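Let's sit down with a protein and look at its sequence and fold side by side. Please make up or recall a protein chain and show it to me in full. Label the sequence line and the structure token line clearly, so we can match residues to local backbone shapes. Go ahead whenever you are ready, and we will take it from there.
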Amino acid sequence: MNKKLYVGNLLYEVTEDDLKTLFGAAGTVVSASIIRYQDTGRSKGFGFVEMDTEEAAQKAVDTLNGTDNKGRKLVVSEARPPKPRTDFNRE
């Protein structure tokens, strides 16, 4: 079963391919995505990586969390489910 990880404190220049390469050392990366602002397309500084197994995900957390990546200390943890959003524009 695939396991999704949160990756925070990324430089704005980091790409999905960079994440795949970085996390590939821990195991097989199923997908990698950088979260971006809708209007500008600029990175928000965090993303998600999906690993193919629970063991690979745990290895990625253990080996990458707190490590330096291009001058920034990565934050790597298990992704939490999104909180329900409230639509404030409704009348």
The radius of gyration is 14 Å.
